[in-house]
Design brief:
The chain has about 425 residues and is α/β, with parallel strands linked by helices. It contains 11 helices and 17 strands. It has 2 domains: about 80 residues, no CATH class; about 290 residues, Spore Coat Polysaccharide Biosynthesis Protein SpsA, Chain A. Helix 8 crosses helix 10. It is globular and about 55 Å long.
């Protein structure tokens, strides 16, 4: 039986065909789509729930409640907590120290039903701004399709709206001299309404080739874009460290959100709002579309800072905590979480660590007891990220001058970087 109380924060109880009693705490003042998502993350669908009428009844109840909202005092910060009493714990939606089981790597979220590589005839129409001298038709169409992947406004959630009134959100990236003109096309599909500034960090010389950024005229008129010039190239770390330092120096706001992106990757329009939402709801956690555990690169986790939420013995699963967040998957941080001085120290002390920003960032986060969460839902997941064709060219940030081996291209350098860090 499903019942609602007379309070804003509702408890819904239902006995399923398992030995467990499921208790779900939701906030009926939030939009229905957010409540559906909470249900999904609550692992109801992973415990062999056979009574699908429960979900239908719950949605109808939510609809009734939203048509006549309750008067509420200040929303409880725990309003989105999801708790399951029974055989296994769940992933906390906010601040709890609880553990959780995620999906398998091959198990996409229940909403992921589209093939991101498909392009319909209607999407083959090129806009007037297409310039084949700057970007290929293939890449342009990928980005054009990404712009269509929208989501309902996260500002319908009172907690999120209040947070964003007090704290700004920034986007951060870097690029090479050869790719500078592609930035405008890269940014076009993204949802930038909630972004205060877009920081493009550029060294005086591009590290590997010593090439200078001679012509920035084509990007100076991009809305919200601000260029940060730094003296020394930090390698891939340049896409996040200078922006975080700039935000903290300028605003002093450790709870400002900084989202890093790669300059050669297509992301859905819905990605930024979703990362903002999850970063607000999960304290002491960074959120990414792609993450791995150390076992993926055969790295010894015994010497890694303890992370009790991570299963050391298996690869990182969707909607779960992991050892390493991967930059190409977009990462959202609260500015105060990042010890940029320690990151720069490690990156500049060793050639392999210089090129292993994901490992360096994640190690420093682990030392600071910041968790790392791999998200997968209808709005953002690894399956919704597309590597653009120029990401495989010689000026890719992750590439070295050395011949790359087949297979896991990061394994050797990550292992060497990890051993260097462990021995420091």
């Amino acid at each position: 039986m499903v019942s609602w109380s007379d309070k804003s924060h509702e408890y819904v109880r239902h006995q399923c065909n398992t030995p467990s009693m499921i208790t779900i705490k939701v906030n009926v003042n939030n939009p229905i789509e957010d409540i559906i998502e909470e249900l999904y993350f609550s692992e109801v669908f992973k415990m062999k729930v056979t009574n699908i009428l429960f979900l239908f009844y719950l949605l109808v109840s939510c609809s009734d409640k939203q048509s006549n909202r309750f008067p509420t005092d200040e929303l409880d910060n725990k309003a989105n907590n999801v708790e399951i009493r029974g055989e296994k714990p769940t992933i906390d939606q906010e601040n709890s120290e609880g553990e959780g089981e995620g999906e398998g790597e091959d198990d996409l979220a229940i909403f992921d039903t589209e093939n991101e590589s498909d392009t319909t005839a209607a999407e083959n129409e090129l806009d007037e701004d297409f310039d084949e001298t700057i970007i290929s038709k293939e890449d342009y169409l990928v980005l054009q399709k990404k712009a269509k992947k929208t989501r309902p406004s996260i500002l319908n959630n009172d907690n999120i709206k209040k947070y964003l009134e007090d704290h700004k959100v920034y986007l951060s990236l870097t690029t090479s001299p050869k790719r500078i003109d592609k930035i405008e096309f890269l940014l076009k599909p993204l949802h930038l309404e909630l972004i205060e500034k877009i920081y493009l960090a550029l060294p005086q010389e591009y590290g590997r080739t010593k090439e200078k950024y001679t012509d920035l005229s084509n990007i100076k008129d991009i809305p919200k874009l601000e260029i940060i010039r730094i003296e020394k190239d930090l390698g891939p770390l340049t896409k996040i460290a200078p922006a975080v330092e700039h935000v903290l120096k300028k605003t002093g706001d450790k709870d400002a959100i900084v989202i890093s992106i790669d300059d050669d990757t297509g992301y859905p329009n819905s990605a930024i709002p979703e990362l903002i939402k999850q970063t607000i709801l999960k304290e002491k956690t960074v959120i990414a579309g792609s993450s791995q555990n150390l076992i993926y690169w055969s790295i010894d986790s015994e010497r890694w800072p303890e992370e009790k939420f991570v299963d050391d013995d298996k690869n990182c699963e969707n909607n779960n905590y992991c050892h390493v967040v991967e930059g190409f998957g977009m990462i959202a941080y609260r500015a105060g979480y990042l010890n940029t001085e320690k990151m720069k120290e490690l990156a500049l002390a060793n050639k392999k660590c210089y090129l292993s920003d994901d490992l360096v960032i994640s190690y420093v986060l682990a030392k600071s007891k910041i968790k790392k969460f791999k998200i997968s839902n209808e709005y953002f997941s690894l399956s919704k990220i597309n590597q653009l064709s120029y990401g495989f060219e010689e000026d890719a940030l992750h590439r070295t001058n050395e011949k790359e081996v087949e297979g896991n291209v990061n394994e050797e350098k990550y292992q060497e970087c990890a051993n260097f860090i462990y021995d420091m």
